[in-house]
Amino acid sequence: MSDSSPARPTAPVLDVWCELQCPDCRTALDDLRALRARYGDRLELRLRHFPLEKHKHAFAAAQAAEEALEQGQGWAYVEAVLSRVEELDRRGEPFLVEVAGELGLDAGEFDTALIDGRHILIVDADQAEGKAIGVTGTPTYVIGGERLDGGKSQEGLRERIEEIADRLLADGV
């Protein structure tokens, strides 16, 4: 069967390479909220995991974020965990399960997901892709084929992302 209706253009994608135990990623939340407010569904924000070895709970937190995404509250969970990075540092996996319960998610399923490792391959794939494209720290953004590193400084990054997003939207990408 043929569909002659014009194809709906897809939204430009902003890959956000993030780590949920990273204070710099917490700081970047304000920029991400501003981008969501400005663009809505015209810009797809996509969480990509890049757990850093120096943070012992980052890998589990990435898996938990995937479970939250599966349960329909990925970004809400990411924001809730990032807003309490110090607590994640102190409490680890029990904290991740507790946050799920606070958001009304199935905390038991979170606990099971962290035990059975059902999301490990997603986290591993993100981390491998990040390394392959030169991600070395978080947050790092990729939009329109351009990598923007926020791990050292986030100054001017939102403006640069907006410039690229505006250009992509004007070009119909």
UniProtKB/TrEMBL annotation:
Thioredoxin-like fold domain span: 10-162
InterPro entries registered for this protein in UniProt: Thioredoxin-like_fold, Thioredoxin-like_sf
A Pfam short name: Thioredoxin_4
Similarity section: Belongs to the thioredoxin family. DsbA subfamily.
Protein name, entry field: DsbA family protein
Biological source species: Streptomyces cyaneochromogenes
